[in-house]
Amino acid sequence: MLQHDNDARIICGESLGTMRGLATASFDALITDPPYCSGGTNTTDRTSRSAVQKYVSSDSASGRAMPDFPDNRDQRSFTIWSSIWMTEALRLVRPGGQALVFTDWRQLPAASDALQVAGWRWRGIVVWRKPAARPQPGFKNESEYILWASNGQIDRDHQPPYLPGVYTQSSPKGKDRQHITAKPPELMRHLVRTVPVGGRILDPFAGSGTTGVAALAEGRRFLGIEGVDAYAKIATQRIADQLGTAE
């Protein structure tokens, strides 16, 4: 375990197995960016290439090698696996808590089905528009999506801010890109604002720790789980840096 204090920590381990060892209803929200197992037009393409091969291109690479991560399930196994870990996440998030889960256009139907099979109450979709997406014949694939759900009815005494349903922000570039599929820190800060101040956020696929950094910046607590040791170390250092900034 890689740990700094009770406000935020990273556990280096397999997500589902680690989640099964955590206490029921010990979190206020699930905010996570799981592997999409996407990035191809057919099953062979999606399951035969590494994450680096699928998601890092010459126009977006940072000029340095980034660690790979498992991303090779086909559509059927992705749906079943997602419903399993999302069911476990429902146990961990208290009644009235919320979930925000990233996906892309290929896995949007599978991920939304899995979320509802797991017992979450479907609430909507947030659009993340990426203006720097590469052009292609026909329509440009310039959006990813955030599935919004709750564990039953959202707390009636919790008054979250009014937030946009569409965000236009570019992915991190250069030295700011610390993960193959890094998300913009400002976008993540908006998402964590749905959680009550002081609330505890779970991210079972923590990557380079952007959700944790955003949580600390917005006065929330955080537990991240990351299965790739190299990314767990990056996330731990980023959280330590953020804690130092806040002191």
UniProtKB/TrEMBL annotation:
InterPro entries: DNA_methylase_N4/N6, DNA_methylase_N6_adenine_CS, RM_Methyltransferase, SAM-dependent_MTases_sf
Entry keywords, A to Z: Methyltransferase, Transferase
Pfam families in alphabetical order: N6_N4_Mtase
DNA methylase N-4/N-6 domain ranges (all copies): 28-236
Entry keyword Methyltransferase: yes
Claim: rRNA-binding is one of the keywords in the record: no
Molecular function as annotated in GO: DNA binding; N-methyltransferase activity
Example GO BP: methylation
Enzyme kind, highest EC tier: transferase
EC number(s) on file: 2.1.1.-
Family: Belongs to the N(4)/N(6)-methyltransferase family.
Listed name of the protein: Methyltransferase
Provenance organism: Nocardia panacis
Taxonomic lineage of the native organism: Bacteria, Bacillati, Actinomycetota, Actinomycetes, Mycobacteriales
